[in-house]
Amino acid sequence: MKSAKVLVALFLYGCYMVRECLQHDNPEPVKTALLQTWAEKLYFELWNCGEYITNRKSLQSKYNKEAKLEGRNGHILVANISSVIKSMMDKKQQSLKRILESVEQVAVSAHNDAPPGDEYKVRNAKPNKATPHTNILLNDLKENSHFYHTPVNATYSSVHIPTYVYDRASDVIKALKWSENLDVAFRKNYEIDPRLSWQYFGSTTGFMRQFPAMEWPDKPDNTEDLYDCRMRPWYVEAAASPKDILILVDNSGSMMGQSKIIARHVINTLLDTLSVNDYVNVLVFSNVTNEVVPCFKNLLVQATLANIRELKLGVENIADPNNISDFSIALTMAFETLEMYRERNMGAMCNQAIMLVTDGVPENFYELFKSHNWKNGTMGMPVRVFTYLIGREVPEIRDMKWMACANHGYFVHLSTVEEVREQVVHYLPVMARPLVLHQSHHPVIWTPLYADVTDPKMTDYLWEKEECQQQYHDTISYKETKDQFFYPKNKAKRDRDRKKKELNQNLNVNRQKKHNLITSLAMPAFDKKTEMTKVAHLLGVVGTDVPEADLREAMSPHILGVNNYAFIVTNNGFIVTHPDLRPVFGDILKPNYNSIDVTEVELVDSDNIARVFDRSILTLRDYIINQTTGDREITVKYHYDDMRRATTAERHYYYSIVEGTPFTVVVALQEKHFGYRVKIPDRFQNLNTTRSSLLDYFKDDEWRIHPDWLYCRYAYDDGDDTSFKTPEDELRHFLKRIAKTDNTWNKWPPPRFYSESYDSKGSTLPEEKFDGKCYCDKDLMLSLIYDANMTKGIFTEAKNDTEKKKKTEFEKRFGVTLAFVATHSGLTRWMDYEDKPKTPLNSDDHENQQPHFIDENVYSIEEVWYRRAVEYNMVNDESYVYSVPFENENIKSTLVTASQAVFVTSKENKKKGAAAVVGYQFRHSALQELFLNITKQCYSETGCTPAKDTCQSIERDCYILDNNGYIIASENVMDTGLFFGNVRGPIMKMMVKEKIYNNITIFDYQGVCFKRENEDDSNSSSFLYTPIHHLKQLIGWLIGRVLWLAAHSNFQWMMSQAQAIFEDVPDYQEDEESVYSADTLANFKIEGEKALKYVRINRTRPKSCDRVVNLYTLTSKIPEKVEHKSMCARPYELRKIMNTNLILLVVNGRCPETTKAENFDTEPKEVDYEEFNNSLNCHKAFYSLPRRRPKTACIRTHPDEHEIYDKMCGKGTITTVTPITLSIVFFLCLIL
């Protein structure tokens, strides 16, 4: 009997298994009619909620009633922008000329003055606490918004003196005294041009006089001040014409110890004095000669920050000195390389020089110089030679000095590290001698974009400091949580957090700007005193800044409109300003932040691999760098929303030269869709009928304006009456003025300045003072006032009782928290449906609070939801665009954002222009509930079986996806915000294959990747050592000695003490203990020294890299269902949810292909350049793009130079060093 029961059970089980197999082979298809019904019901709920909450139709009607459209003409736009920028730059040049004239006149007048006595005091921007009697306190400093909210005094200047420059040296103190007279020119310039930024004079003696006076910012981490004006781009470019530099460093057996350290410091300092218009390489020689970076073989590379960094890494990795040096081979190789670049018109195409760094030469190599450098006589030698003799005990300096003097160079004898930085820069005045001797020509130079006072060499140091903080955090976390630190859940969370942080740092998600990015213009100042002996003394360089923000402001982004933009490119093809320029990584400057090429931000829609640029963009680049005027159309692809979304578009590029500068302005328009802008009606043009109502449009506080746009501004921020806490306070102030008078519309720059042009030979400059107290952008202000009138009360307009009831019903059903509207003029209004206060930015608990919508969404047309709504209008002009935060772990508080564009449509030609975007936010939990409730329903007309066909069935998996493949809703709420390919890779892959989603490959050419410190460097370059690195080595040595002693004493006692550190905190209890069995938990227990190993983070170094990411976008027309041999060949069905950017997707869970663990993610990955040992810099050096040499004249020789070199071509120095200087030099040695 018992055996019969067993047989029956086996039979039934077999039948069940057969049934299951048959069902897997022939699964039930998804009911398309049921799917359609679900999609329609979701549409109905979402659509009606949006219409009732946003009141979109009313706003649309208002705009269409009287607003008109105006076409955007690219040729006119680019011409206007370049004209405004030219006018701005002309003003800066005029100011610069006044300072220059003052410097040269005052220097001549003070030539015979005796140096001031000990009683002389200076206004030191960083007063020396050790010698307070030498400094005048900087009093009455007031915060000024025009100077980045820095406290300043605009009645006098202050000076910055490098720490290693002795401020009481006779030549320094004398120049400090006579340069005080520059304050008159500084003040006059500021009166004439209130938009003038910092003005300064950098002296060859090392100090910089800056106006207005300010206190030098303290270093937050107590690092030493490394700033030296002679190392800044504006100084080194103005001090001499562009140059090709070959540095030869001796690595023979005698260059050991201190000599090697000094030599390395000399090379790094030389590299710091180069700019992007210079070309350089470093060769190391003994019995053979090689490049310190092997892939730079036979090359001169452009002196970008990235290449300079690569060369410094190569210098750091030079092998130990050995053998006897063959100077002939090294010098011959250097001369031949420079000759090749001259003959082929490559490199800087102007000055050339060899820098020889050694501890001695066997002879003077007369014959070598004669055959390579004196072919046309000593008067026409193409290459200068500078010699740096290293060491105290040197046998002979005569040959080294002769080599420099005979080749129009300079000789320096360096016996200590502390004198290197000051003595190396002496080569710059030598290179400038031809310029000085010509006297009349003062070339104006323009720098590329750079951070004002930030030293790029600090990147590695700051990154290592950040890693130390991370290590501290992890150690404390382990100490508090003990074994649970290693739980998979906790480890996975740490990994996610780090990946998210890295992504945000790469994309610079935080809009707070720590670095002030600028371009500078500068001119060299010459000593014009008449002497019996030729001197050709460079006094220094005068300069002023142009903030990048001012250039963006001049481009009138409100006129260009949403998804259109303008940018500026230099003669090198590098970007000065661009909406996709991302110069920082977190708060740290990227290694190549200011040498981003136009081809690296304008990505052509092609299938080319990384750095194989399409011919269309290369042609456009050639036109731009050669400063022509014209236009071209290119189909491009671009990313947005933190590089999580991408699309393609046809852009029309218009370009025009900014005369007198190396810059070209480019305007990029999507004319097909965004070629028209809203023009306000005539009744708002003069405000005659609306002037009294201006303040009524802005009565409440629930509005913001674009913080970076110029609406109205006072010319000078000189007190409480002209300083405002917020842009909104400033606007209210000017609205009151406009309501009273029509005299507020002073334009900037004033029209009379448009005709002014700079003449380098002229001596008379316009000196009219700006006579307007304030100025406004009238077009923008009137547009703002019009939009304020249109949107006032938009969310509270009277409705009939039925509509009010419906609105309240949807409000509650969807958990609506906020409605908003943003306009093309930069106005954003909102209305809260919940009492949710805005988070104060200085709140102690700011990081733990959910920010209010308006805290992060004040940039109107630049916001992602605005851009997406306008863009999706081209697909469906009735559609709302929905989104949720990516990978949001706090699901309970997740909000859904919905937005739709409001367009003005022309009745005559049906053209459209974006006027505004309306939207609202509601709780994701409400959408989740709606989704589950609808998709669990069966309808008789669809032939549905609840147990099989609804989303409650185990046979169906249901999702709502957006148009980029991100999950908006799912049966598993934890999927919210994830990319669908991460959850169901095989299904996403099928949808891409069937062209439901299109793949868009985006290359991020501004990426930052990380290299572990213990990895072998295949590029023969080690990492740039920082102070922390050297300190770490010292600590490591000490620990090694302690452990050696411990091994010979009481080792067990030491380990027990170390273990106690991790046992003095009670165990931190966590829910995860209930998830795992006792045996499994035991596997997570890692103790003692092994635990420390796992807690220790992998030390890395940031490096420039290219990254690639595959992003996806929904096809505008989803293909009809394709017939397949079996149901599982296409195990899903989908329907678009009407008037949204969403699709409803149902996956057949019976098909085994749907459960494969295949990843299909959107995470950026580093591009490998195997041809160059994965070195991006090597790849770029080998496949370098063409450039145009600056248009400034190349002045590299003068017939009178020989009179100078007979007497002034070098010296050795004996330096008296203070303890402070010694500490600074020690820090410099470590960081360099």
Summarize the structure.
This protein is of the alpha+beta class and 1232 residues long.
Descriptive labels:
disordered C terminus; alpha+beta; Beta-Lactamase; 36 helices; globular
Please tell me the CATH architecture of one domain by its name.
3-Layer(aba) Sandwich
Main sheet properties: 8 strands, mixed
Question: Count of helical segments?
Answer: 36
> Helical proportion?
25-40%
Secondary structural class: alpha+beta
**What name does the CATH topology of one domain carry?**
Rossmann fold
Strand coverage percent: 15-25%
Poorly predicted runs: 16-25, 748-766, 839-848, 1016-1085, 1213-1232
Total E-strand runs: 43
State the separation between the terminal residues, measured CA to CA: 91 Å
What's the overall average pLDDT, rounded? 82
Tertiary shape: globular
Radius of gyration: 35 Å
At the fourth level of CATH, the homologous superfamily of one domain is von Willebrand factor, type A domain
Report the CATH C-level class of one domain: Alpha Beta
Subcellular location: Membrane
InterPro entries: Ca_channel_alpha-2/delta, VDCC_a2/dsu, VWA_N, VWF_A, vWFA_dom_sf
Pfam family, one: VWA_2
Membrane topology: Single-pass type I membrane protein
